[in-house]
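Bumping with the actual sequence this time:
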Amino acid sequence: MSRVLIVGAGLTGSLCACLLRREMQNKVHIQVWDKARGCGGRMSTSRPPDASSHSADLGAQFITSTPSYAQSHQRFYSELLSAGVLQPLDSLVEGLKHRDGDENYVTPQGMSSVVKHFLSQSGADLFLERHVTALYRRGASWEVQRKAGGSEMFDAVVLTMPAPQILQLQGDVGQMLSVSQKQQMEDVEFSSRFAVALFFPPDVVFSFPWSARYVSDSSVIRYIAADSRKRNADTLGRGPSLVVHTSVPFGLKHLEEDKEAVQPIILQELYTLLPGLPQPISIKCQKWRYSQVLTAVPDCPGHMTLLQRPPLLCAGDSFVHSNFDGCVESALSALSALKASL
């Protein structure tokens, strides 16, 4: 039985684990490690400190399928729809550009429910707050070191974090990269932004008609969502949540500042845009240093093989594009490479 480690419990990592289990059954023992306290990556859902409010999606907001991907990835959409993880978006999103044939979907239980679905299907052992710092080749295996100390041996490793974080790894990774691979990964560019979630008490009802709105007249804020309304998840006795995404230029300008210093600027702009907004009971601010891929690895290969045996692969949106279907493409690409090498 091959021991496979997938680093990163986002969409690419969770789906890769799920597909590997379905294709190779009991031939693999799969572990998924993530440095965060919860799974989801940029599809994470934040719970409020007080259970009287709804959760909030601080990263990805909804899933848009194009006609071509709706066809080629039909099995994944069907699976998630039949499991109740996805539902069609049926509320008003102001400023949303709609192309013919596109379908938009929301997640009633939050975006992380997509990742959790695939992780549960994978049968993988999930370890959170495990931060990988180095990989060393030891014969036909990989020794993977953790920031907290200690290491473990694996027969194959798939790295799904953003390319800049892969390049920061210590050990033998740098030696495994060819000159062109290293250059391609160094050329990957991400946008950066801040996201803020506001959690409100149960008696609050928003006065505006939309579930989400793209903002065109602010240099600070690009997007606002009444998150529980957008997900069609409003329930009696629980307060609504509001999510705010900053513009990319604002995110870039303030990237190296503490989020505690940036949060008041965002909130001041929010209350200028929505002057009647009540006061929340709690607020959470998130800095997305790696928000969405602006420049991916050329030709969008889906994955990059650093070593065929023992397999060391890189995957994720750095190698394709930043959306649901991009991550699906990457997971499928990594799967085919793993099957050929294991």
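The tokens above came from a reply further down the thread. The chain has a mean pLDDT of 97.
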